[in-house]
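Researcher: Next entry in the queue.
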Amino acid sequence: MRCLACLLVSSFAALTAPSAHAQETSIGIAAPLSGNFSILGHQLRDGARLAAEAGGATAIEADTRCTAEGGEAAARALIGQNVTIVVGFLCTDAIEAALPLFAEAGIPVVTPGVRTATLTDQRERTGWPVFRTAPRADAERDAVADILVPRWRENFFAIVDDGTIYGRELAENMRATAELQELNPVFIDTFRPQLDNQIGLAGRLRRAGATHVFVGGDRSDIAILARDARGMDYELTIAGGEALRAENSSVPLATGTLMVGLPHWADIVSDDVRQTLQDAGIVPDGYVIPGYAATELAIAAARQADAEAGSVFDALSSGTFGTALGSLSFDAKGDLNEQFYRLFRFEDQTFQEVE
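Model: Structure for this entry, 355 residues:
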């Protein structure tokens, strides 16, 4: 039995070995096509399949079932079909079971769905040939601080959270970022969520002199806080994270509420791809456009590697690729260099991007 170090060395050699001759580009599409996540898997598959067709590549599908067993089975099936590169995966268990096999076979994987931070953080140790077009799990946390702190540096701002892991991580990272820039919030607190009113929180914020507040919490609590502040004739700018895209709460969200979040992909996709999807009768929901863009990138990288007599892994590591979502490239870990998070304002019952 080979030792792990030997396996990693042989895997890296396979990933970086030059192509011997031009060959047809075949794209493996790994998605949960059955089970509880099949709706999302079919979205990813539809987008990837259409991009492969548009790019003149052969698409070969495999069902991951969003399980470790399914991920391993999908990897073996795609390796057996001699695919050039793989696009897909939505679940951590499935991709983590598949990647050791792809590493040994020298086949890179581009995932538009798995956001788990450790997937790329441990790439140097594992030797896994993974590249991610999805945002990292901690990308929202960083975006909240990067977007709001510079905008609010001249304001009396507060930071509160609902005590959940999600809320506290967003709030604490914003506080730490502000501190590094020598900015001090006028008020920091953890509030009790899911109450019928947040009058007490609104009162504490007003006494502290806060004009702006970031809330690490859900849509319902933010809507209630805005309602209660308004009822006190207290003008307060409130911002939250992606949780604000949740279903409407019993209390309507206030006009002017700010959100740091991802755009709807259909709002930023290129016009030609939008038309291609429309002509094919595909509704650009969920993972359709991320699947399409990841497949465009995968095809371009495979062809660049072939033209340069290099490896697909090296092409992905060093190249910049035009896609339906703009030009994309990867850092040393395999995460995107580009940032998709943006600031939105709630107007006319929808979130509109703040220029």
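Model: DSSP finds 14 helices and 14 strands in the chain.
Researcher: Noted, moving on.
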